Amino acid sequence: MDLVLVQIFNGIQYGFLIFLAASGLTLVFGILGVINLAHGSFYMLGAYLALTLTQLTGDVFLAVAIGIPLAVAFGAAIEWAFVRHLYARDHLQQVLLTFALILIFNEVQRIGWGSHPHSVLAPSYLSGSIRLTDTLTYPVYRLALTAICATLAAAMFLVIQKTRVGRLIRAGESNREMTELLGFDSRWLYRFVFAAGTALAALAGMLAAPVESVYPGIGERVLIISFVVVVIGGIGSIKGAFLGALVIGVADALGKVFLPSLAGVVVYALMAAVLVVRPGGLFGRVIR
Amino acid sequence: MIRLPSLPVLLLLVVAVAVFAALPWLGGPYTVKFATRVVAMAIFVMSLDILIGVTGLVGFGHAAFFGLGAYAVWFVTPKDDGANLILALASGVGLAGIGAAVIGFFAVRTRGFYFIMVTLAASQMLFALFHDTRIAGGSDGASIDVKPFLEIGGRVILDFQQRNTLLWFAIAALVVSYGMVLMLVRSRFGRVLQGLKANETRMNALGFDGQRYKWAAFVVAGALAGLGGAIFASIDGFVPPEILGWRESGLAIMMVVLGGVGTLWGSILGAVVYSLAEEVLKSAHWVGPVVAEHWPIAMGCLLIAAVLGAPKGLAGLMPVRAARPWSAPAGNGTGVVHATQPAPLLEVAGLSRSFGGLAAVADVTVAFTPNRIHAVIGPNGAGKTTFTNLITGALPVSAGTIRLDHDDITALSAAAKARRGIGRSFQRTNILLAMTVAENCAVAAQARGSAGASRAEEDAAVAWALSAVGLVDRADRVASTLSHGEQRQLEIAMLMASGARLLILDEPLAGSGPEETARLTALLRELASDHTILLVEHDMDAVFACADTVSVLVNGRLIAHGTPDEIRRDAGVREAYLGRFAGLEDAA
Amino acid sequence: MTLALVKTPAEAATRPPLLEARGIATSHGRTPCLRDVAFTVGAGETVSLLGRNGMGKTTLLRTLTGLAAGGPNASIRFRDAELAGARPAAIARAGIALVPEGRGIFPNLTVLENLTLPARPGPSGKREWTLPRIFDLFPRLAERRDNWGDQLSGGEQQMLSIGRALMTNPDLLMLDEATEGLAPKVRDEIWATIRVVAATGMSIVVVDKNLDDLFDLADRHVILAKGEVVFEGSTADLKGDPDLVHRWLGV
Q1: pTM, two decimal places
Q2: Are C170 and C95 in contact (CB under 8 A)?
Q3: What ipTM does the predicted assembly reach?
């Protein structure tokens, strides 16, 4: 039973983390209409950035503080240099061009950090485990991570609901043409959304670094899971990404306990089930 | 329509085959194995082009079938012995085909992004199955110690252990399968696939069951990929689970696009060029140590440049064979065509359709008599398009019945209704832009009747349709190059060729100048002699010039139905159009 | 095709045109929708754009706001700037506001959010239209300020769309079928509001089919048929020629 509980906690923590990454993806796909396969690479680069910055500063949160603006700038640069040429193109070309980006980013990672796994230490004030019950202990950092992600999720909701930018994003999601008629140039909106999506993926990678080892393949795993979450939650829906990510996280974790050899299948089976019942995902297209 | 390769291309292919076949003498064992791998990949990539280039289905899980084909060889290989070669290849094709049948059944019910996700998910599930379980060696991969061979009467005729034999067999398999796929794609079945890629809406409106055709294409493509996988497994006798993964699928898509989507031979070229490029970029001897060390960056840049700069791929650089010009069949085939059913009677009773709480069409009852032109008019938002969508089956009915010649057709699908002889044109012409005028009509003719048409009937129908609308001298022009008016004529020609007896035309005169309008109106009058025509229009001059009856829809309700003169005098109609306009009640 | 008499009203000659569009030839793919259309709006003028469906009215408005390309010879002069080929956002910021057919309100934003999203002073610094003023003009919106956009009735959505356009303090307000599908009483409310707005000196283009209302409202009427201007004149001109009305607007 303890094992199940631990796995559920892990699942929730994983789910929150995936939510960060998937929310960026759903925004980019929902508003820009671009399938960006390189989204996983941003996660991976974030993790490696955290590795280097933590080595330099000694504290992963300091690394995050420095890394976020870097990730935002990087995202804006990629959008300007490359992604904005994809808006007019069909899915096939978007898939291909972003796939080519994966090849490039993977090699950049290998040049910078090599192929062997690294680990990033959690900050000392969050290391160790805390006793939850007589028989159950749980790593402090994971709890902190869950709390941080939950706070970020709340912050994201607040930004989307309460700020002018959030209003523009929601409006653009339901009627982009109307926002243009009201004087908002989509080009800047798109750049902002892509940079934000990149930063969210990178942030997820940075925060996750102390929990799992940092190795070259982590981006691709996150990419596919993020797409599954987007399908389940509904393209463009933050709320859907939140629910989808939690469901996926817990299902994946429980799958590892009860169906260890078929754990990898659980996630996809869930996606298939949702598609059958609600073809547009849980929350369809509109961001609330 | 996909063409046979032009002479320069054929020459290129022949030279390539010759070079590959001569490799045992030109290069060492590594070269032969590399070449065999390339040929196996080429079969795989060509099979993907059937999906992407021919049918327009972009899937991200095709490597699953390549992998299934490879693993199948391992499954049928007995311990410490080699499998029967025929059995090995047949299992590869069979297992992959079955996998494609199952996955494809669900996948073709989705489209676009969701199709990508479903195929991706399916291949990832298979990857998980082969990687995480011990069903075939798990993450270590499956080893085939003795490669397949063919033994007849005690003598070994073909042995894949011999790398040269495998190479030549693979080349032969590629050539034969290319020939067969080419024949399939240029057959009537293949023509429907190309039509689905060109315009699925139009194909469904003609009565083709798009999902069934797509599923068939999916199975064929999957089975062929399995053949490539079976050959691949025989090269090194080792199958890693990674060949089922999405990276392999992505690479395959890359090669198809690099080579040129939709040409078939282009994808073979793409596989060869990509593999060669990878070898070159990895070799310090060619590109220097720096680039060789970081070849993925160079490859990524190359691919981006290729896709952005040459959207038609390498095949775009080669000349295309000219299509055989269409010619009218000998003898007057019109007799064959006209001897079909007379124009039908269309009756709707209590027809309604609601969206949420809003009634788009409310309780409409009207009869449209045969051999007449019936106009349906009404102010904006009156429900005219919804009304036609209900009749053609594009939308399901909320209440009421639709009868064609007294048969209740209300519950039939759009494709079934089309096969009953209902043809529709759309506000924005829906034709197959990538095909020629004659090909468009041929596809339409292929759909006629409930049993399909014979070749002779088809040719006759095309000839009749083209001469009736006056497009005979445009027969070989690609539809996308036609003027707007000609495209409208083509759409009507397609309806005629399809044998539709009830024509539902949605604003066929939109955007037409006066001469075009006059020509189309005259054509409609002619067609009325053996069709029933329902016309949704705003051009009042044309409506009143050619319509026999006029039905007026306002807010989903039929407020008037009668001759043009009766409608013109109807006060309710006038108010619907002019709103409150007190000054005119006594005028006109 | 014979054109009806095109009569230019005398008043327009004395006011400099705010908007002067020429050579507009818009197509939907291969389908030509507008053939060499010229359209002007004077400062402080209210012009009605009439014609049956599919004749090009919405296409003209979309071309003027940059959503559709007007063809190689198009020229759209607004005050002193040439707007042909400019992005819709730039045209909106130059002072042209469109209240589109279908209203285009954001269903996932509240009434308040719909109104405050685009709020800004006009291109010449005009700050006439503020939130309190809009709520004054449309008391019903004030009552429903926290409702989601898709919880409003058709009439309220229309008011919201108009109010939202006004919050950008435009110099030219264009309304496409602003009373479509609305009950007569609501229609009257909306027309009354438009009259108030016109009285502030706003230039207005109205597309509608209720001729009586438009006769009261507009200074000049333009009729489009099959993508061409077939009539331009005053209310008196129209009222005096009922055949014309039937020919181009009736059945």
Answers
A1: 0.87
A2: yes
A3: 0.90
